[in-house]
Each structure stands twice: as structure tokens, then as C-alpha cells.
Amino acid sequence: QHTFGGDYLAGLWRDVLLAALRWWTHAAADIPRPVDYRAPSWSWAAVDGLVAAGRFGGAHREGEPVAEVVQCQVDLKYAEVPFGEVTGGVLTLRGPVIPCVWDIQVSNHLYRVQESLSEGSRLQPVDPRILACEDADKELIGTGYIDSTDDRDIHDLWAVPLHRNMDEVEGILIARKKEATQDNREAIRYRRVGYFDSRDVAGPIRLLVDAAQVVEVEIV
To answer: Are 119 and 18 in contact (CB under 8 A)?
Structure first.
């Protein structure tokens, strides 16, 4: 920070934030989340164990982004310690969002399902029974890598593509997180639960990304 400047956001840097979100963990590893809150789910600091950068290798200089950071705010425990403990953080992304199902108990394959957005572009949860239905309208779009084994029972989620390189796409996986507001109304936010890429899929993922509806999601 002393050399390059820029804002520090719970382990990531604002000026390269979209690229920095593309970290991943080894899906086969037993990686629980810390018992006490450490960082927002979109930060690698939210999990224990080894993490790696995006699988394209230096990819933020190749290809093109397919999403954008609208805003990102981190709450510091002590304002005078910008690199210290955080108590919260919200990341707002705008980009294509694809409803998906997966089953990490069997494989890491990620399937797109036919689901529409409700009025106001609120994401609708996918019925996990679709996963077991051979006749369901679902399409293999990539491989998912779970951030933490604590989320092994999550089957319905959304893929948020972040970057496209030729016919390959990589991004993050999010799940719904329900929160109560001060007036006791339910606020819909999301939390990151994994990373995905399409390098093992021969299908036209580029066309799928172009056709996906663009929405804004808040990730905590």
C-alpha cells in the first residue's frame, strides 16, 4: 500500500477487486469457516486453509470482464487501523447471474437450470429436486469449487461470471442469506460459497453469459 497506494478491503485491493475475487480452494480439502467472524464471504480471509488465484493465471490482463463492482464497503473495528480487524463488509456486483444446482457429494459439476427472475429482479431460489431429475431442463456449464465444507449441503445457488477469456468463463457462486432489517423487514443479500470455471465444458458458455439477465447483487 505504501508503494502502490489504493484502498485495502479485508485482504483485497479496490483497484483490482474484480480480478482478486477469483480465488478458490481445493474442493476435496476439509476447510471449515472460522468460528468467529473474520471477514466478508467474498474475501479469502473468510476461510481457513490454502487458497489460490484464478485458474487462468494472470487472467485479469487477458480476456475481458463481464461484471463490474458497483461499490464495496468494509467496516473496520478500529478506524485508525486500516489493515486490521473488520466487523463487516458489503460488495455490490452488477453482472449476469445464472441460476444453478450442484451436488458436491457426487461431483463438482455445475448445472444451469431454467429459472426466471421475479418482479424487481429478485433472484428466485432453485428447487434442489431439479438436481435429481433426469428430465429437468438443466445444462452443464462448468465445475464448482466450494469455499468451505460447512456449505456442503447447499445445492441451489447462482453463478456470477466475472471474467471471460476466449470461450472460457470464471466467476463466483453465491447463495441467499436472509437478514432482518431495523424495521423487521427481510433484506435479501447473498454470500459467496464457491468459485467456478468452464474450462472443462465444451458448450457455448459465451452465448449463455451474453443471454443471462444482468442484475445487481449485494454480497456480505
So the answer is: no
* pTM of the predicted structure, to 2 decimals: 0.85
How far apart (Å, rounded) are the C-alpha atoms in residues 78 and 99? 38
Closest C-alpha among 120, 73, 61, 122 to residue 97: 122
Q: Three-class SS of residue 20?
A: helix
Q: From residue 117, give the alpha-carbon distance in Å to each of 70, 120, 167, 192, 211.
A: 20, 8, 26, 19, 13
Averaged pLDDT, groups of 10, the chain, 220 residues long: 89 93 79 89 91 63 86 95 94 93 75 59 54 60 87 85 86 83 66 88 70 90
- Judge contact between 95 and 161, C-beta under 8 A: yes
Counted residue by residue, the chain has a size of 220
